[in-house]
């Protein structure tokens, strides 16, 4: 009897645990706020400011932690940093806003900015008196809702096409020849003909799947407001053809971006679609690597989606805290600050042209990445805002259905468009 | 389960006793004389009651509350969600995912249970006859239970990988064709079910094995004297005498399997498309799997699952009552 009871309510009980856990967290952060007035530590006049970011891989002894603390010291306060993984961070931010215990600063993945802004929990950059005129418009756009910017990108990353130089030279392919879809497909044919594997990418049924598909989608000239356009179908057909011809492995349907990279590092694959964050790993690979820009259908560089975090300041009850928060945000967003962040992470391109020039002076190898970021496009831009996550879910489902053969590309996208329409209406 | 109503009832009883109720039953009269210890009893039960309210009643109420409001993200933060009655349920039932998810839940649950139980029972009977290393072997069969789910699910995902998986390399080595276990809509559900069967066998093995210990050896001796072979012994002795334990094992397995999220999520995230999406996966995906949490439909699907589990729970209770009545 006890057993059954336990089974019934396990769902509910785990939900309760989650709620309890969150309220404990909330209590901590509010304690930090009130504790600061006691000035118990005595070393700083300003007290403790809370900071959340999605970098759990950088622990308390990391360069990143030191960088964050340095910004706190400059402002005369201690920063208490908590790291969550990306998805958990959005949920935590929403829950803390509900409890009225938001942290002072959050670094958050750019598509989530409009979601958080929509709840009214974020201050606008204008209210904060920060200048965003130097920030590249295509990067800033991801954080703009109804004409107001709700955050500043601290850096940007995007996707590009890594290649294995050994495989390409073995198959006699010149990477410079890859300028459009046809030349890429021809290169894949040549590579697989020489006994190697062609290309790997991530088609998993999560945001990563949409993220990886978008360069091809946009590169065909398609638009997120019309998923079933002929251009969109062409983009999806490109991917399904690669699978059908054996240029891409069937596993791409379940591949996350990490898995893609692991496959590429085996040395079998000629190409892998992946991001700026793998630059260091690529340099350490056992074979020579390089990148080419993701080609548009008829040539040129396809717009890849921008990745990277925005620094946002949630609304606080105690508005007196804003002054210090402002100093912390400014510390992260000066040109020197951008370059320092880029160097700390080794994979962030500064979002201002001044910052990009400074970075290239130190590290000329990143030139193609700077170009890619300049061509990149925010997923939530074009006024999509909070509609984007809904459209994206429909899109990745279509990609999955087409790649797995459950539907033709045209059928899959037709369904996706009607799903997206009913979800966003 | 019975302890809760009893506590509540006794509290009412003591209140009634304080009033002027003359026709109190004997039990109640005895309680009146013990009213201080009655309060002590309530005091001792209080932590349990608080625990039940906090961790059982409140989350359940909250889940229902979420499902009858339209909790957009904005409403979630500002706490002003519009009351929409059963609209979330209507949308869930009307969604194109619903029939797929319901069917997948059915196939996944019953497929898992059928094989887990059969294999578990076969192994339990096998290990009943002690032989050398039987204890060691039996302990090894518990490994799936001891491994963290993320480890076993990832391992299964690797083994079933289309290109580099060991399963496919065996199949192709024997001249078969590559099967896209996790990436084809025809086999994704089967693959996650196979992994789940493997995970559930130890549970069935342990419970059925302990059930077998309760069957007296003399029954088998008598049967073999009468000339019953192993097969006959199984169907005429083991199976009928094991029926009470079997019923409980299957019902617990059902309720447990209904709400499996982790194995499927790690192996296929419910894909490709909706091919391996069960109700539990659907609920999880709505709430946490996309960039925009949709708590209301997720809670509605979650409540559906609770109702289904409840139905089986009551079935379990009924069966148990009937067994107690007959024994």
Automatic annotation (TrEMBL), chain A:
Keywords: Signal
Superkingdom of source: Bacteria
Keyword Signal in record: yes
InterPro entries with a match to the protein in the record: Bact_solute-bd_prot1 (IPR050490), SBP (IPR006059)
Coiled-coil ranges (or none): none
Signal peptide per UniProt: 1-26
Protein name: Extracellular solute-binding protein
Species whose genome carries this gene: Isoptericola chiayiensis
TrEMBL record, chain B:
Keyword check for Protein transport: no
Keyword ATP-binding: no
Originating organism: Isoptericola chiayiensis
InterPro entries per UniProt: MetI-like, MetI-like_sf
Name of the protein in question: Sugar ABC transporter permease
Coarse class of the protein's main subcellular location: membrane
Subcellular location: Cell membrane
Membrane-crossing residue ranges in chain numbering: 39-58, 101-127, 139-159, 188-209, 241-258, 298-317
Membrane topology: Multi-pass membrane protein
Residue ranges of every copy of the ABC transmembrane type-1 domain listed in the record: 102-316
Residue ranges, annotated region (Disordered): 1-31
Homology family: Belongs to the binding-protein-dependent transport system permease family.
Keywords in alphabetical order: Cell membrane, Membrane, Transmembrane, Transmembrane helix, Transport
């Amino acid at each position: 009897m006890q057993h059954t009871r336990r089974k019934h309510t396990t769902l509910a009980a785990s939900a309760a645990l989650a709620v309890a856990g969150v309220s404990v967290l909330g209590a901590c952060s509010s304690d930090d706020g009130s504790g600061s007035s006691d000035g118990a530590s005595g070393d700083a006049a300003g007290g403790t400011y809370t900071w959340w970011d999605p970098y759990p891989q950088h622990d308390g002894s990391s360069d990143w932690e030191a960088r964050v603390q340095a910004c706190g010291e400059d402002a005369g306060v201690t920063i208490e940093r908590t790291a969550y993984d990306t998805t958990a961070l959005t949920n935590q931010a929403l829950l803390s806003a509900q409890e009225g215990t938001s942290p002072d600063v959050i670094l958050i993945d750019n598509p989530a900015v409009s979601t958080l802004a929509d709840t009214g929990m974020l201050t606008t950059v204008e209210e904060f008196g920060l200048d965003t005129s130097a920030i590249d418009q295509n990067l800033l756009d991801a954080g703009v809702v109804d004409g107001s910017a709700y955050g500043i990108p601290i850096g940007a990353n995007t996707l590009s096409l890594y290649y294995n130089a050994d495989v390409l030279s073995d198959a006699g392919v010149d990477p410079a020849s890859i300028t459009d879809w046809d030349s890429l497909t021809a290169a894949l044919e040549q590579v697989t003909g020489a006994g190697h594997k062609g290309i790997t990418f991530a088609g998993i049924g999560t945001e990563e799947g949409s993220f990886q598909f978008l360069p091809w989608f946009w590169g065909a000239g398609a638009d997120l407001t019309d998923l079933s356009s002929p251009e969109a179908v062409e983009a999806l057909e490109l991917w399904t053809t690669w699978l059908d011809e054996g240029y891409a492995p069937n596993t791409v349907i379940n591949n996350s971006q990490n898995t893609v990279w692991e496959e590429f590092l085996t040395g079998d694959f000629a190409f892998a679609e992946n991001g700026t964050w793998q630059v260091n790993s690529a340099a350490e690979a056992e074979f020579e690597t390089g990148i080419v820009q993701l080609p548009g259908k008829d040539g040129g560089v396809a717009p890849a989606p921008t990745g990277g975090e925005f620094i946002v300041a949630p609304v606080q009850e105690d508005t007196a805290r804003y002054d210090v928060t402002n100093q912390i945000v400014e510390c992260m967003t000066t040109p020197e600050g951008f370059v320092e962040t880029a160097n700390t992470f080794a994979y962030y391109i500064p979002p201002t042209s001044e910052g990009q020039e400074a970075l290239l002076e130190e590290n000329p190898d990143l030139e193609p990445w700077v170009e890619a970021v300049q061509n990149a496009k925010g997923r939530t831009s074009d006024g999509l805002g909070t509609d984007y996550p809904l459209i994206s879910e429909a899109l990745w489902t279509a990609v999955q259905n087409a790649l797995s053969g459950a539907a033709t590309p045209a059928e899959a996208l037709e369904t996706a468009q009607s799903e997206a329409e009913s979800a966003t209406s | 389960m019975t302890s809760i109503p009893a506590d509540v009832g006794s509290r009412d009883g003591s209140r009634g006793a304080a009033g002027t109720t003359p026709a109190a039953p004997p039990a109640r009269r005895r309680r009146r004389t013990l009213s201080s210890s009655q309060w002590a009893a309530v005091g001792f039960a209080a932590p349990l009651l608080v625990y039940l309210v906090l961790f059982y009643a409140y989350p359940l109420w909250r889940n229902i509350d979420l499902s009858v409001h339209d909790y957009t993200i904005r409403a979630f933060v500002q706490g002003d969600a519009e009351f929409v009655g059963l609209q979330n349920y209507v949308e869930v039932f009307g969604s194109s995912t619903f029939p797929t998810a319901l069917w997948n839940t059915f196939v996944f649950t019953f497929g898992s249970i059928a094989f887990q139980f059969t294999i578990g029972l076969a192994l339990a009977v096998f290990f009943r006859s002690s032989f050398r290393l039987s204890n060691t072997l039996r302990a090894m069969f518990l490994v799936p239970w001891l491994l963290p789910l993320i480890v076993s699910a990832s391992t299964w995902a690797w083994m079933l990988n289309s290109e580099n998986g060991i399963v496919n390399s065996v199949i192709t080595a024997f001249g078969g064709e590559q099967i896209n276990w996790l990436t084809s809509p025809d086999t994704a559900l089967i693959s996650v079910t196979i992994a789940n069967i493997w995970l559930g066998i130890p549970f069935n093995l342990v419970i059925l094995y302990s059930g077998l210990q309760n069957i007296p050896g003399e029954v088998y001796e008598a049967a073999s004297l009468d000339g019953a072979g192993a097969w006959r012994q199984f169907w005429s002795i083991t199976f009928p005498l094991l029926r009470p334990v079997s019923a409980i094992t299957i019902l617990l397995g059902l309720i447990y399997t209904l709400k499996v999220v982790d194995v499927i999520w790690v192996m296929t995230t419910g894909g490709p498309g909706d091919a391996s999406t069960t109700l539990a996966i659907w609920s999880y995906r709505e709430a946490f799997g996309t960039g925009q949490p949709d708590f209301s439909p997720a809670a509605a699907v979650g409540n559906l699952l609770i109702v289904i589990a409840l139905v089986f729970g009551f079935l379990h209770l009924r069966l148990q009552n009937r067994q107690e009545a007959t024994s």
